[in-house]
Amino acid sequence: MLRRINPALPGLLAGIVLYGVVFQFTGMWFVDDKQQYTIGLWIGILLAMGMAVNMAVVILDAVDVMASTGTAVRTGFWSVLRYVVVIGAFVGVWYFEVGNLLVMFLGVMGLKVSAYLQPLLHRFILRLRRFCKRDNGTAE
């Protein structure tokens, strides 16, 4: 389903989760409050994943609307709403002291890191698929 929205979206989401797992295991060695760290990180990772899906849907919608009517008014609304939700999440985490805000920000930055690494991750996945097919005897 995600591939129908945008072919790069599954790889982008996988990169965000991989980024979160790497940060989870490396950061746990250096913090005192592991619960705050973990909650902040995964709230940030979930926000990054939500932002990625929202951007992909908005881009798809904008392309469809531009093709039919020539104007894309809702694109700006959804972009602003996306950032309002992120700011609201940061305010909520800060107000209720649920997680670490700095680590939450680093989790959200997983979207940027994954976007830059997505072509490399995509090539790695394709090579891994070819290697697995070759080991199973299905490829020559």
Written description of the protein model:
- There is one protein chain.
- This protein has six helices and no strands.
- The protein has helices at 2-5, 9-27, 34-68, 74-96, 101-108, 110-136.
- Helix 2 packs across helix 6 (110-136) and helix 3 (34-68) runs parallel beside helix 5.
Secondary-structure blueprint:
Layout: H1 2-5, H2 9-27, H3 34-68, H4 74-96, H5 101-108, H6 110-136
Helix pairs in contact: 2-3, 2-6, 3-4, 3-5
Kindly report how far apart the N and C termini lie: 31 Å
Overall shape: flat
- Which regions are unreliable across 5 or more consecutive residues at pLDDT < 50? none
Radius of gyration: 18 Å
SSE succession: HHHHHH
Main β-sheet description = none
The fraction of residues in strands falls at: under 5%
**In DSSP terms, counting alpha (H) and pi (I) runs of 4 or more, how many helices?**
6
What is the arithmetic mean of pLDDT? 89
Structural class: mainly alpha
Q: In percent, how helical is the residue content?
A: over 70%
E-strand count: 0
Give a brief outline of the structure:
By secondary structure, this protein is mostly helical.
List keywords for this structure.
single chain, 140 residues, flat, mainly alpha, 6 helices, 83% helix
